[in-house]
Amino acid sequence: MSIHPPEPFRIKMVEPIRLISAEERADALKKAGYNVFALPAEDVFIDLLTDSGTGSMSQNQWAAMMTGDESYAGARSYFRLADAMKQIFGFEYFVPTHQGRAAENILTGLLVKPGLSIPSNMHFDTTEGNIRARGGRPVNLVADIAFDPTAQHPFKGNMDINKLRKFIREVGAENIPFGSITITNNAGGGQPVSLENIRAVSAVYREHKIPFFIDACRFAENSYFIKLREPGYENKSVAEIAREIFSLADGAWMSAKKDALVNMGGFLAVRDPELYQQICNELIMREGFVTYGGLSGRDLDALAVGLWEGMDEAYLAYRLGQTAYLMEGLHAVGVPTIEPAGGHAVYVDSGRLLPHIPHGEFPGQALSAALYLEGGIRGVEIGSVMFAYPDPDSGEMIYPKLELVRLAIPRRMYTQSHMDYVIETLGSLAKKATALRGYRITYAARFMRHFTARFEPL
Q1: Residue 270 is inside which H or E element, if any?
Q2: Rounded to whole angstroms, how far apart are CA atoms 415 and 301?
Q3: Is the pLDDT of residue 146 over 70?
Q4: pLDDT for the residue numbered 14
Q5: What is the pLDDT of residues 293-341, one digit of tens each?
Q6: Residue 176 and residue 118 in contact, taking contact as beta carbons nearer than 8 Å
Q7: Do the Cβ atoms of 219 and 266 come closer than 8 Å?
Q8: Could you read off the pLDDT of 51-75 as tens digits, one per residue?
Q9: Does 389 have pLDDT greater than 80?
Q10: Model confidence at 386, in pLDDT bands (50, 70, 90)?
Q11: Dist CA 235 CA 227 (whole Å)
Q12: What does DSSP assign to residue 147?
């Protein structure tokens, strides 16, 4: 097993957690309709459901919050954030939003019409949901190596350029309101995208006059992977790499609850002044005035500081090291995962661990429920519950190629002993994997069903 990296911080404040009894866990899960999203947080011992807004803020972020200006319009907090945005991302225009899906809602509401298609490497759940809700078609064009769980490729999040060119020829550029890429590729194992690939994607989009947007929620982790793995960038800073990435795009959105190290916040940034004005109009109707976008002044200040702290290389080395430690520990106890380790999470390959459970019986759901019952650990299914959908033309159910359970690690929160407990618990489950059974859905919403679906065990 690898050595757990020492934390580049000291802990100033603690929050008590407790492991309730196995009987209590079974009762809690049944009441939740076997959906871990519906569990009360106090009944969870180690919460790896998401890394979105769940981490710890720093002393500098908390200090910045005390300077928050709560003016409705033109607050000082907005201008401090605007300065950070300009230096890091370089876009001419931006609006703050309360989180990433708010930015997605505004962008897709303005640009997506029924029948239009939006290509990406792999859309994640809220992006896909917002596109489908407007009658659009999210299309994943990730390189095929992304679906080989054990392949040791440094940039398994890359988009396949040949697939992208072919798709544009078949669909027509006029039927693509914008194209995107997600860094890192959350739906495919948290795998990074190379700058070479981002540059090539940008060139294809620009050749066909298709606006190019980056889903930037884990831009700092992706930039650090580029520094570590892409020749020619080893002596560049994370900030320099990030600036180069965004120089290739026409816009970006971000759930700042990830790499900006805040509990709430996001943004939508563009270069086109006409589109920016439309965005402002939508923001005012749905989120708030253009200088606060649904956030308090103290949130804006915490975000302005967190954008810089998320690019700290000592922190990023620890962040990636902790994820690798968890992955290697799981391998040592016979638990298969997506390899190599991503930046923010370890993705257990429930399809390989539970080959006796077919797509339609949700192996990831079975494993996530069993993980909670076994040790009070909450992960999240990323498989057929989250991403299966009926083909809009044939009605045939399309299942994802990977059936995963994501263990997303909140930033600056859990220690080595917590990771060891997760390893031990999953190792115990692996020994009795053949005894696990699938689930069926008893209720599901039309879009993003995984958040509120209810199940019963088969």
Answers
A1: strand 266-270
A2: 28
A3: yes
A4: 92
A5: 999 999 999 999 999 999 999 999 999 999 999 999 999 999 999 999 9
A6: yes
A7: no
A8: 999 999 999 999 999 999 999 999 9
A9: no
A10: confident
A11: 7
A12: G
The single-letter code of the amino acid at 413 is M
Rg, the chain, Cα only: 21
Host H or E run for residue 29? helix 22-31
Token readout for 170 is 């078949």
Averaged pLDDT for residues 81-98: 96
Residue recorded with tokens 């990977």:
402
- Could you tell me the two tokens for 79? 């201008």
- Name the strand (E) or helix (H) holding 24: helix 22-31
Is the predicted pLDDT of residue 26 greater than 80, yes or no? yes
Which one is predicted more confidently, 400 or 55? 55
Planar angle of CA 217, 222, 228, nearest 5 degrees: 160
The pTM of the full predicted model, rounded to 2 decimals, is 0.93
Domains recognised in the chain with CATH numbers: 22-51+312-457 (3.90.1150.10), 59-309 (3.40.640.10)
- CA distances to 103, 107, 119, 399 from 110, rounded to whole Å, are 11, 5, 17, 29
pLDDT at 396 over 90: no
CA separation for the pair 422, 415 (Å, rounded): 11
Confidence of residue 1 (pLDDT cuts 50, 70, 90): low
Listing DSSP states for 113-128 in one string gives -TT-EEEES---HHHH
Is 137 or 446 the better-scoring residue by pLDDT? Answer: 137
- Whether the upstream peptide bond of residue 6 has omega within 30° of 0, thus cis, is no
The CA angle 261-266-269, to the nearest 5 degrees, is 125
* Phi and psi based region of residue 43 (left: phi greater than 0; alpha: psi -120 to 50; beta: remaining): alpha
Structural tokens at position 394: 């044939």
Nearest residue to 171 via CA among 242, 115, 113: 115
Please give the backbone phi and psi of residue 113, each rounded to the nearest 5 degrees, phi first: -120, 160
Q: Report the alpha-carbon distance of residue 391 to residue 269 in Å, rounded.
A: 32
Euclidean distance between CA atoms 259 and 438, whole angstroms: 34
Alpha helix stretches (DSSP H) within 251-394: 273-286, 297-309, 313-332, 350-353, 363-375, 384-387
Written as one letter, the residue type at 411 is R
Total residues belonging to the chain: 458
Q: Are strands 377-378 and 46-47 parallel, antiparallel or unpaired?
A: parallel
According to DSSP, residue 11 is labeled -
The CA-atom distances, in angstroms, between 445 and each of 122, 303, 448 are 22, 32, 7
